[in-house]
Known about the structure:
Layout: H1 26-37, H2 40-53, H3 57-81, H4 87-95, H5 98-130, H6 136-152, H7 155-185, H8 206-218, H9 226-230, H10 237-246, H11 248-266, H12 272-276, H13 279-286, H14 292-324, H15 341-360, H16 365-372, H17 376-398, H18 412-430, H19 432-459
Membrane topology: Multi-pass membrane protein
InterPro entries: AA-permease/SLC12A_dom, Amino_acid_permease_CS
Organism: Streptomyces coacervatus
Amino acid sequence: MPSSTTEVETPPQADADPTLSHGLKQRHLSMIALGGVIGAGLFVGSGAGIAAAGPSIVVAYTLSGLLVMLVMRMLGEMSAAYPSSGSFSAHAERAIGPWAGFTAGWSFWVLLCTAVGLEGIGAAKIVTGWLPGTPEWAWVALFMVVFCVTNLAAVKNFGEFEFWFAALKVGAISLFLVLGVLAVAGVLPGTNAPGTSNLSDFLPNGSEGLIVGVLASIFAYGGLETVTIAAAESQDPVRGVASAVRTAMWRIALFYIGSMAVIVTLVPWDSAAVVEKGPYVAALDHLNIPGAGQVMNVVVLVALLSAMNANIYGSSRIAYSLVERGHGPRALGRVSGGVPRIAVLASSVFGFVCVVLSYWRPDDVFPWLLNMIGAVILVVWIFIAVSQLRLRARLNREAPEKLAVRMWAFPWLTWVALAGMAAIFVLMAREPDTRVQLYYTGGMTAVLAAAGYARQKARH
């Protein structure tokens, strides 16, 4: 990527976006932070990781969870010091240069918009399973319209939707963990304690299986960044970010690592139901709790709809922030009633186009799009780590009072995180499936970086 000079132009925006409303309350942010950890990737995508890694999936989620904790701590430090709806994109611009903010922002926008389409398709498949004969595209269109309208209204509507979505997800997974622990302990009526029988073959596919599990788990953590985007529209951004980041460790440990440990203890890792039904449904069916599997399907549907809602919100705010900093068409930056409504519409339309492509060009254009976003989150994390290295040094010199959240053992753990990201890139290059994603994401990143650098030079 192009290098920037030492003196970096300060992004033309205030620490918090004055034209956006501040309708999110602390309870909204707290629940968005809590529910954001419980994403669709955990419910839907973890089955493939278990099938590849077996019981060692617990190690895989622990390793990737430690990396995510470091990334969230770095992002929290910068977002508490400089609240902005652009989040890491604004931080990258402030720390590295306009080209970096441009690259990080627009690549993440493409990722979120595409994810909206994928989550809509996943949610529609669940509903058509209950109502066979109904067209999937009609359900996707309905979900798109509902959440587009929700996000076009005041931001507090988004907050209320996410509050109740998150409450349901947190309640369901907490109940799952309680039932699972009771079953493992042998005190749940009608079940026998499995002991360690399902854990005896801990590395069934060797180190290669563990590597696949690590790669699968990395991308299940998507959605954690939303709380730092939403914080800019809250009544107390610094407090909201600080609270969310400080509780990230136990949330990841409990919901991700804890639930994986319960699942692989209860259900044989090579059970076909783990992939076909999903690991949570398979575990509840294994406990012979009447109707529990279908209830968990409802929770998975809620998780997918919650992710759609959050990603439409996040993509619109990233687009708004980019335009405010001169990195996109001015129309996307128009705010009405405290909401960037054109950006909401554009993000929703892009997401629906992805859905259309999945039906129209399922064998060429749609897979190309999926591969292009495959490693974007890692690119974003690298921008976060490099930005934090540079901004922390600047804050220590110029405004130490803004460090409401501090990265642990700076700068050593930041360098450890960067080394971990580099290791993941190497692992992706070794696997045929993820290698293709690496190429496509690298190509998109290079194109955006070149365009951003050209714009930066032209502006100077």
